[in-house]
């Protein structure tokens, strides 16, 4: 991966971080039961994660060498560490000193919160004391102190605290088992024993919460381990060759992703493991078909990824004129249907699964997705099987294909209005059978048949290509055949994903509608079908971006234009998502040769000429 190519995945991660952590803050704001001391620290941590996704990552990608960037990055990252520290301290006090916990929180809660923001801000602007002076000694000492107090000490505290918490939890579990066994022999307990049992139950609940926060702390430890290693190497070793050997570029890039993933993991862990958050989410979705919180959260995350990835496809075609081809306009239409799947279909179905309007929306969006995929497949089929016809037929058929792929699903999905969507009538049953056959099974067969024919033609074309001589016209023919073969492979992967993802739907509709045997449909399969449909909409843009040649070229060109003026020191500094401060660049530049920028420009120029 080139250094500039991390911008797109980090951009998607940034949006995911902002959305998920914002949901945590909204849940606490909307539900008074969640306004506890522990959740106050959780909200503070979520706000620092929001700043990581909304400010730190975009700013660090766009302006990695700007002096202000260093101060902002340092303040936000140290704030995140301070809030993880406070969350761990909160659990430590609740488990180890439960009788003093509320007294301590009533006295120091707001002081803890304010301190977790003020202290990092103050520490991050300390380099302003020596300003623009090249005081390398002071900067190095400051970095070591910052690394020790901002990473190593919290790192050790989290490890020691949760070790003691789990030792206490083990003791509580043993005591609960002993009390339970004694209770079975003694029969009824007196009031003192009941109070003790209630205390044990409370401690058991606190232990569950501690386990959840232990997962957050483990993610913190794992995400900051590369940063701890890289900062130690970069500021402890003065020899540039040794630094480059011990800190490869892939590890530098990986460190930035681990810090971003740490901010993305926290709200997901709250939803899955923290009992109070989990209970509130269940109340928010009382009548949904998939009845587990895990399904709702997972599908919500998938919805966000679907919308973002397909939106990138649409924006690329809009901004890059080279991508405005007949095939790519069909891709945009397919991407729009996928955006509707992630942005409308899944959220509406999770919130109001039994609504009549939901049924119309689900039917129209799913059928439009299938119709667009059939249109794209037909476009590729004509391009490979009848290339001479394709050149003059494609422009004429493009508008018709795009219109039909949206108009027909819309009309068909509204037909039940004529019989008021009465599922007991025979006409509705016939309607469902026709929709299953013409909307699922027939496209399923057509796509399979079309790509089998295309691959046979591609194999025949590749055999012909080997026999062509070295004339110029034949070289052009070889290039055309090779390009068509690549495009066919890309769309075959998309079609294979469609076939696999829609297989559960084919089985469910066949068993329920044709054979009228819903008892042979496992409940797990009905849940899996949601994920397969979402996965199908997520796979399409990923296939375009990573496999389709013109999209790959457009992405590389776009990223190269954004980062053409980056120097080698920028490449080295970009993934160091740890303790970036003002003046850090001068420390590292002191370890680099003076002609590094010229060499970098020479390499970039050579790369552009080759491309």
Give the arrangement of secondary structure elements.
Layout (H helix, E strand, L loop, with lengths): L6 H24 L6 H26 L4 H30 L1 H27 L11 H51 L4 H46 L3 H7 L2 H25 L1 H10 L8 H27 L6 H26 L4 H30 L1 H28 L11 H42 L4 H43 L8 H25 L1 H15 L4 H6 L10 H6 L6 H15 L1
Helix pairs in contact: 1-2, 1-8, 1-10, 2-3, 2-8, 3-4, 3-5, 3-6, 5-6, 6-8, 8-9, 10-11, 10-16, 11-12, 11-13, 11-16, 12-13, 12-14, 12-15, 14-15, 15-16, 16-17
Account of the 3D structure:
The chain has 611 residues and is mainly alpha-helical. The chain is built from 20 helices and no strands. Helix 11 runs antiparallel to helix 12 (356-385) and helix 16 (523-547) crosses helix 17 (549-563). It is globular and about 70 Å long. The model is unreliable at 287-291, 469-473, 565-601 and 606-611 (pLDDT under 50).
Keywords:
single chain, 611 residues, mainly alpha, disordered C terminus, transmembrane helix, G-protein coupled receptors family 1 profile domain-containing protein, membrane
Oligomer: single chain
Q: Main beta sheet, described? A: none
What separation lies between the terminal Cα atoms? 16 Å
Radius of gyration: 30 Å
Structural class: mainly alpha
Low-confidence sequence ranges: 287-291, 469-473, 565-601, 606-611
Instruction: Please count the beta strands (DSSP E, at least 2 residues each).
Output: 0
Helix content: over 70%
Tell me, rounded to a whole number, the average pLDDT.
74
Strand content: under 5%
